[in-house]
Amino acid sequence: EAQVTQNPRYLITVTGKKLTVTCSQNMNHEYMSWYRQDPGLGLRQIYYSMNVEVTDKGDVPEGYKVSRKEKRNFPLILESPSPNQTSLYFCASRLAGEPYEQYFGPGTRLTVT
Amino acid sequence: DQQVKQNSPSLSVQEGRISILNCDYTNSMFDYFLWYKKYPAEGPTFLISISSIKDKNEDGRFTVFLNKSAKHLSLHIVPSQPGDSAVYFCAASGNTDKLIFGTGTRLQVFP
Prior knowledge:
Chain A is an all-beta fold. Chain A contains no helices and eleven strands. Chain B is an all-beta fold.
């Protein structure tokens, strides 16, 4: 089954404790991205990657890091989480040249206390 | 600056009637528009799209209308069903190859 998976689905952590949210897709998509969803703000792009070893900042990259060492994986790293990073996070992927129909993962709800 | 706006945070419609969800945009460089649907505890899923060269695209019960001069698009659902209850996101893309999402409208279809 074609899908984007994220782990963990739920995470409660404390300020400053490094964490990683994993994202994996099995559709051989070149393009992957991370979004956060906040009330009243919709979905905002954090980082994206056009292909392996190619990443770039989205609209709200501060406090986040990403890496793309393999085509299928695109982890999101919070080196020192803060309460304002409490949010619902989505990973998405798509084919290059198909900029529109993105496939989203199920989401990771992160709470930073 | 919110380039894609969904001014109605929620909408309630009776089953069988028409649901109309609206979206406005400010960037005239946008040339492709999409609607995504999101159920609780799931990621958004693609619903329907429209290119700027068209003014209407229909897929079953779902129709998207684009008014370029007004920078406005709308999603019509006819007839509405309880399973349509979800959050709907409008999104737009231009020459930057990036999707800009609106804030979402929560649709509730009641019996």
